Amino acid sequence: MADDFVLMDVTRDGLATITLNNPDQHNAFNPDLVEDLKQCLEDLRANSDTVRGLVIRAEGKVFSGLADFDWLPHTAHYTDDETEEDAQAIADVLIRVRELPQPVIAVVEGPAAGYGLGLIAACDIVLATPSARFVFSEVRHGFVPALSLPYIIQAIGITAARRYLLAGDPFDVEEAHRLGLVDEIVEDTAAMKAKLAHFVDHIFAAAPGAIAATKSLIDDATGLPIDDELVTETVAAQGRNRTGAEAAEGIAAFLDKREPNWRT
């Protein structure tokens, strides 16, 4: 794409790869990256007859960080409408990943935080290397992880979500595997290539219509479907939080490289 925040490649046999490509800002979500992701996902859905699967990975040593330092200062001056538009765009990306008819495989080869963790949780299969680390640190910065929350709960369950979302402390790939956020730990680059090929071969051997129907039924069977009403609720919650005093203090502290003061 023109600004290269996101790269997409589709092989002749129908495997698409989306690469988050803003390593200077740790591939953290910003409006440009989000818009590129939305466009890629829309293109894949429109071509579901020829694209059989999607791999999401990241350029650089970090899968996705908490914040884009170039973009973050601007959010402190957002109007209510701008905040809601920003939240809706990210929510649209996450639900598009979940609702793609094709299987989506996340390849995580480094730390992940923020919306990147929501993206991982929205995928169908997650492969990670030992270098992967995870943290839901939003509350420590005055933020509410509203947009990612439904996907996190589906991935790791309510009890673990309370434990890690409220405490905000990091955990390693072994714990992520135990929780169910990571499906398989893959030791190195060569092993990742082989493991990815294994899953892709099995996906391509299956009927695409049956896969799409099964994906939809899995979500329905959880009893916690992520529908339009829930997405709208998370967007509203995100908007209320981001225009509040705690988020403002969290952003200021983050930029000033100091501990936030929640007592004022």
From TrEMBL:
It holds the Pfam family ECH_1. One of its GO terms (biological process) is isoprenoid catabolic process. Keywords: Lyase. It is an enzyme of class 4 (lyase). The keyword Hydrolase does not apply. GO terms for molecular function: enoyl-CoA hydratase activity. Its EC number is 4.2.1.17. Signal peptide: none annotated. Belongs to the enoyl-CoA hydratase/isomerase family. This is Enoyl-CoA hydratase. It comes from Candidatus Phaeomarinibacter ectocarpi.
